[in-house]
């Protein structure tokens, strides 16, 4: 019996798909809220290029630390700082040698209103606003950075009664985007794409006003035998991920 070339091609394709599926894994990732948009973009390319599936949960770094210590099923952790991953490393909660910096974050003072925030952030000193949104500084590194900026500018006392705290940087952003706060400190990545602020008005806070927001990634012990966890860590170090990360205003 003669087998048609089209049938041979179909059989080969089916075998290849079955092979890829057999070797594909799923990785559970805890992602700092500020990195939501970049990881969603990276996930599409990662899944297309590797065949592995990325399942992400988003939240505050401090909250994720507590969940990880209580046995949460995360295999990779993309934190919003470098101290929490280092702490997990010291506590033997990660695969040895897996910690690395995947991004350096930028803080921005933002308002949903066009022209409300000037290019030098002088609106903070004018003190005419009613509410200033920040993320919880005890759980979210961007919130801690915001308090450092206020302290450096000697505005801590002046703003004390105006602070509205979000559980994480996403909620801090939502307070401003919904108009519940006139302005707030957010991650630049939430309002920035391809070299420009996408909505409202913003002051990109100079890095000299707060400690570096160095964001580290680790493979947690639960991911030590997961090929997808290792593949994701390597992918985040590669050129495709780097281009996406940079497009959202991060440094590497």
From TrEMBL:
BP GO annotations: molybdate ion transport
InterPro entries: AvModA-like_subst-bd, ModA, ModA/WtpA
MF (Gene Ontology): metal ion binding; molybdate ion binding; tungstate binding
Extent of the signal sequence: 1-24
The organism's place on the tree of life at top rank: Bacteria
Alphabetical list of Pfam families matching this protein: SBP_bac_11
This protein's UniProt keywords: Metal-binding, Molybdenum, Signal, Tungsten
Residues that hold molybdate according to the record: 61, 169
Family of this protein: Belongs to the bacterial solute-binding protein ModA family.
SUBUNIT field: The complex is composed of two ATP-binding proteins (ModC), two transmembrane proteins (ModB) and a solute-binding protein (ModA).
Name of the protein this chain belongs to: Molybdate ABC transporter substrate-binding protein
Species this protein is from: Pseudomonas monteilii
């Amino acid at each position: 019996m003669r087998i048609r070339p089209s049938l041979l091609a179909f059989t080969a394709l089916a075998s290849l798909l079955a092979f890829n599926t057999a070797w594909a894994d799923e990785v559970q990732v805890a992602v700092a809220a500020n990195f939501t948009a970049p990881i969603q973009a990276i996930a599409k390319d990662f899944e297309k290029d590797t065949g592995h599936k990325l399942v992400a949960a988003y939240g505050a770094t401090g909250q994720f630390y507590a969940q990880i210590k209580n046995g949460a099923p995360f295999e990779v952790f993309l934190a919003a700082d470098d101290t929490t991953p280092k702490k997990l490393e010291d506590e033997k909660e990660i695969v040895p040698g897996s910690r690395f910096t995947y991004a350096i974050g930028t803080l921005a003072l933002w308002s949903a209103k066009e022209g409300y925030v000037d290019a030098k952030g002088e609106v903070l000193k004018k003190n005419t606003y009613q509410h200033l949104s920040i993320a919880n500084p005890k759980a979210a590194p961007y919130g801690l950075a915001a308090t450092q900026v206020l302290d450096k500018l000697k505005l801590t006392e002046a703003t004390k009664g105006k602070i509205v705290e979000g559980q994480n940087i996403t909620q801090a952003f939502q307070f401003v985007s919904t108009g519940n706060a006139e302005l707030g400190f957010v991650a630049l990545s939430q309002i920035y794409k391809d070299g420009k602020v996408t909505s409202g008005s913003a002051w990109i806070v100079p890095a000299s006003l707060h400690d570096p927001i160095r964001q580290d990634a680790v493979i947690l012990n639960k991911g030590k035998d997961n090929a997808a966890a290792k593949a994701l860590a390597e992918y985040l170090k590669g050129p495709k991920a780097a281009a996406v990360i940079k497009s959202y205003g991060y440094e590497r």
